[in-house]
Amino acid sequence: MSLSLLCLIIILKVFSGQILTCHPAEYLTAGRCCPRCLAGSRVETDCTEFRSTSCLPCTDGTYMNHPTGLKYCLTCANCDAGSGLQIKTSCTSTSNTVCQPLEGFYCMDSTEDGCVKALKHTSCQPGQYIRQKGTALRNTECTDCSDGTFSNGTFTSCQPHTQCESPKPRLIKPGTASADAECGKEKLNVTAIVICVIVVLFLLIGIAGLVYFRKKKSGKICCYFLYQTIQTLS
Ligand SMILES: *[C@@H]1O[C@H](CO)[C@@H](O)[C@H](O)[C@H]1NC(C)=O
Asked: The whole model's pTM is what?
């Protein structure tokens, strides 16, 4: 009889423990409902029959964003630059840090606490234009230039190639998808001019040398004859 009574008591205790629910402003601990600590704080010691829950404020770098029965505060998130993040809102004792993408980055993974991971905006390639500039939420969109136009990857539209005409009528370099055509004035061939000058110079030197040599020779002949004439006469 006493054994069955004990069994009944145990069953009742277990049953009552399982169905024991607390008011939303309370938490369950050791079969008792204790008042929760306010946001910004945590439980230091559970309530007892004689006194209420004792609470401690969250220390720096930790927070609690709702009334709690936990004995610890939560750790504030870091906005890691390596994950492309910067602080949008600093951590307080009642709210976690809110992160946002760095300038030139977009968020690829976000929660209610803001962005968790961001990636750098794609750079458009030469030959493409920026169809849609990247935002904090979306990547940049690039599109290829059509024939006869160009963009170096930083333009918001492809520019038509320059048509060479006066005063620069000569096409030096045809346009590509990534670069404009290059025009210039009719240019003289520098190599040809240099060769011409050298040839003329050599010719002049040659002629001058010849003339000088001739003069010298004829001078000698003249003087030799003169010398002979003088000798014969004397
Ligand atoms: C693209 O062209 C713009 C304007 O001509 C220039 O300022 C910029 O440096 C160029 N960028 C590249 C990557 O070549």
From this structure: 0.61
